[in-house]
Amino acid sequence: MHLPDGLVTPILWIPGWGMTGLWLSVNLGQIQQTSHGDPSRGIPKAALLTAAFFLASSIHVPVPPASVHLVLNGLMGVILGIWTLPAIWVGLLLQAITFGHGGLTTLGLNTLIMGIPAVLAGWVFRQGRRLGGERWLAGLAFTAGAMGLGGAVLLFWGIVLLSLLGTVNAGSERLALQGLVLAHLPLMVLEGLVTAGVVMFLRQVRPGLIP
Amino acid sequence: MNQGTLLGLGILILVGATLHHWQTLSLLFGISLGLYSRSGLPWALLFRRWRYPLIPLAVLPFLLPWESLLPIAARFLSVVTLALVALESQPLPVTLGILRRWGFSGILADMLLLTYRYLFVLHQDWQQMQRAILLRGGRFAIPTFIPLMGSLVVRSVEQSERVYAAMRLRGYGQPMGRDPQVWTGRECLVLGRWLAVGLGLWTLEGWI
Fold first, then answer.
1. Distant-in-sequence, close-in-space partners of A129: CB < 8 Å, separation ≥ 6
2. Taking CB atoms and an 8 Å cutoff, what residues of chain B touch A41?
């Protein structure tokens, strides 16, 4: 679910890079502030978790009759907190460089597609936890996981159809969007279940990892 | 590759991504293939990289006429090829060193290097854990993926604590000066050449 180079027009990818650059610089400033000017402690942890998520999301998990690979951006938002956006940007850049998934011109848009739902999912999880405590942990994690993928699907296909505006008729555009969103519903449930499973596993094994 | 070539290729990628006419796009495609051939990178790598991003394009014939599809395909293949030349013809730390000289964030550069380095270590860990499950008679599916994923997260955090301790012992986190940003005459010449190619393509695009 990454936009490749050449598919979207510059009217879309140039603002995409601009928005991502601005958001990243604000985010990096916040990291500097919260770490009192020395972010070096958080970098190895964020980098290794990025590598772990990058790896896990590239593995095909058998779900009969086919196999799927998970996006895990909701889980990233839950665990990485303030480091979510840099982690997603680094992961997507490495995917573009090492596997050719996504692209360089579209890196900004792809970061927004994955990053906005991930940050929102993390925020919803933390707010929910603050209000509801431990009772709803699994439910909150499920919501965060499903929200991460659902948001990414909507943004991805929204941008694809926006870039094809004028070349495809409105009827088939609407039909394509509805069909694609419906096709992703089972994957949202699966993503939610995996996120909830991993969060519950971490609560038992290393509770300090869940903010 | 020097910083003139890297910036020049970056400019060519940006110019290429804005082209629409098949004439300019086929010229760009020819240039990108010529550059790839000169870079000495294996052709199998190029075809492997083309394969995955071609999947979304395979859906488009159902939505778009061929005359709209061909420029999209040419633009995408050219940009992927140019990006491959820019990033694969030298090690990642060298490219990051150049980017750091241009003001690229130190946090992102360190994260990129560490993520890239530990991707291979964690991949080995993952394979070991997966093999252990299979040897115990388990099956790789969603119920086994969850504890595997959880263990991978725990392992990566534990490893990051050891990595951080080792890096601190080597002086990581201490303030250090950035390499001075010096452009040699040759690098300026190379950049000028790529700027001329980019401008030429844009002029041709406007003229058509």
1. A136, A137, A140
2. 164, 173
